[in-house]
Amino acid sequence: MSVNQTKEKPLFIGIDGGGSKCRATIYSNEDGVIGTGVAGRANPLHGLSQTFESIQLSTELALKDAGMSISDSKGLVAGLGLAGVNVPRLYQDIVNWSHPFAEMYVTTDLHTACIGAHRGGEGAVIITGTGSCGYAHVGDKQVCLGGHGFALGDKGSGAWLGLKAAEQVLLHLDGFAQSTALTEHLLGHFKVNDAMGIVEHLAGKSSSCYAKLARTVLSCAHEKDEVAQNIVKEGAGYISELARKLFEVNPPRFSMIGGLAEPLAPWLDKDVVAKLSPTLAPPELGATYFARQSFDKKIN
Amino acid sequence: MSVNQTKEKPLFIGIDGGGSKCRATIYSNEDGVIGTGVAGRANPLHGLSQTFESIQLSTELALKDAGMSISDSKGLVAGLGLAGVNVPRLYQDIVNWSHPFAEMYVTTDLHTACIGAHRGGEGAVIITGTGSCGYAHVGDKQVCLGGHGFALGDKGSGAWLGLKAAEQVLLHLDGFAQSTALTEHLLGHFKVNDAMGIVEHLAGKSSSCYAKLARTVLSCAHEKDEVAQNIVKEGAGYISELARKLFEVNPPRFSMIGGLAEPLAPWLDKDVVAKLSPTLAPPELGATYFARQSFDKKIN
Q: Given A25, A65, A163, B299, which residue has the most CB atoms within 10 angstroms?
């Protein structure tokens, strides 16, 4: 395929790069999704060469899945949603890549997640999984809030809930407060019985280790443990505020994405919950819509 | 020298291992300090072989300083104060080391710091530098509180003050609160003008990077910046509580050690400040006192 053929009957590939996986989806306007591929992590913040390798591999797998050959990547219009490309240096590094595609458009993983959630339309999203952040795009306006990473930001995220719980448990164990159900559950989680045991399991560990405690915090809060409730209320309060900040640009739709979206919902303020709509498509499809939109803008 | 000679006229070496330096001090009952040596970091939590190398090198330098030969280490009674040896596995790793000394006694860096602060006597200390923790020993009682490490614990420490300040600045920059003098000072500190700039300088960085912000937080608090004051008051409140917990075992003396001991003092509760006594000797001398006490106990 040549770029000229591409312009007449373009094939798009959406790449959703993340901290654990990279998903590629090949999409045509006529047939929808025709192939998918999954490779390892593709987060430019954690290494460029690994990111390029994962994009390449997921692309090859998607091409194979679509019954195409590896060299057919030269005919694809690519949309990449990647973490960290709001840092100008990283954006430039990605754009400078001698990529295997006909065209390549790069944006943040937040942007493609948002485009996906609203099936190509404008809107706002809040992502609450291991981390947390908010994003909205309406007309020329783009708003990106929070998401400053563990342990600096990401309030209300899984890792943040886990960290706050561990802090509280250690304060309890040092005698600064009474033991509660949360203490017992966390000691049970790690099969330890003192502060040293907790520290051994968590000191210097990644955000995902802390995020594994989030379910315990949420279930203790659900069972009316006061310490757990205070943590969850503070986190959910921040997420509600984050949503209201996004509403200031009047997004036509609002969705929440990520593993904590559902369990956090009962703790959000009612005005925020009232505006919640379901996500319509996953981020990797959002990346194909982004590729198509960017390509259409260029050729028209 | 043989161990028998050692028993008659013992020479002691105190080792104070830390996250950045390892200090060795050779001490005799007759002449006091006769040699000192400094090597790189010796923190078992961050690597055993480096710890052993730093202990060995600082010992050799101290021997040279005392006009002795390297093989004379075989006649020294050593006292080691090391971080992390309250973890039984690490304690055992250190004790199993085929060390170059006549005798070797191992305890935590907190214990030797406390012995030093009270020149061999009993008492309590709070250490507030990059990290924070409290320690007391009175008779058979030993109390060790806090010090669970960044970002899990170490409330009121330099790293904690820096982290809280960075969190607040990011919340301000995302529009969740008004800008204050603290915001301006921290943006100036990093020579950046937005949240991304702050995150680029701090994401994934060590506790010492955060601790470098502590002076700024304290000076803003001193100039009555409300956000900075709230952070410092919360940290100092914890330190005051920590002190009161230590007072429960009735320590005859109480000292504060570390770079933040002095600037934090004005923010501590009056009942705590009233009990403060100056530190009498540094941790590496504390380690020699510990060596002597352990040796005396053994031979008597």
A: A25
What is the enclosing helix (H) or strand (E) of B288? Answer: helix B283-299
Whether residue A246 is found in the same domain as residue A286: no
Residues A163 and A92 in one domain: no
Same domain, A165 and A83: no
Same domain, A67 and A8: yes
Are residue B170 and residue B75 in the same domain, yes or no?
no
> What residue ranges in chain B does DSSP mark as E strands?
11-17, 22-28, 32-39, 76-82, 103-108, 123-128, 132-138, 141-146, 254-257
pTM of the model: 0.80
* Residues A136, A251: Cα–Cα separation, whole Å: 7
Q: Nearest residue on chain B to A244, judged by CA atoms?
A: B176
| A241 within some domain | yes
Contacts of B198 in chain A (CB under 8 A): 148
Nearest to A269 by CA among A113, A126, A114: A126
**Cα dihedral sign, A63-A68-A74-A78:** negative
Which residues in A lie closer than 8 A to residue B163 (C-beta atoms)?
A: 151-152
Q: Is residue A216 part of a domain?
A: yes
Q: Are residues B9 and B110 in the same domain?
A: yes
Best mutation target among B144, B148, B248 (most A Cβ atoms within 10 Å) is B148
Same domain? For B9 and B108 the reply is yes
For residue B201, the domain's CATH number is 3.30.420.40
Q: How many domains does chain B have?
A: 2
Query: Are A174 and A214 contained in the same domain?
Result: yes
What is the residue range of B223's domain?
158-251
Q: What percent of chain A has pLDDT over 70?
A: 97
Chain B: closest CA distance from residue A148 (Å): 6
And the tokens for A62?
């998607």
| DSSP label at residue B108 | E
Using beta carbons and an 8 Å cutoff, which residues of B are at the interface with A?
Answer: 45, 86-87, 145-146, 148-149, 151-153, 163, 166-167, 170, 174-176, 195-196, 198-200, 202-204, 238, 241, 245
Give chain B positions within 8 Å (CB) of A202.
Answer: 152
The string over A138-156, giving b where at least 16 C-beta atoms fall within 10 Å of a residue's C-beta and e elsewhere, is beeebbbbbbbbbbbbbbb
In angstroms, the CA B114 to CA A74 distance is 69
Helices (H), chain A: 3-8, 48-65, 88-95, 109-117, 158-173, 181-190, 195-202, 207-211, 214-222, 226-247, 261-264, 270-273, 283-299
Instruction: Please write the tens of the pLDDT for every residue from A164-198.
Output: 999 999 988 888 888 889 998 998 888 888 888 88
Q: What is the pLDDT of residues A214-260, one digit of tens each?
A: 999 999 999 999 999 999 999 999 999 999 999 999 999 999 998 89
Query: Which residue from A minimizes the CA distance to B206?
Result: A204
Cis status of the peptide bond prior to B117, with omega within 30 of 0: no
Judge: A151–B151 Cβ closer than 8 Å, yes or no: yes
Task: Say if B257 falls within a structural domain.
Answer: no
Question: Chain B residue closest to A237 (CA)?
Answer: B176
Dig out the tokens for B216 from the structure. 């700024």
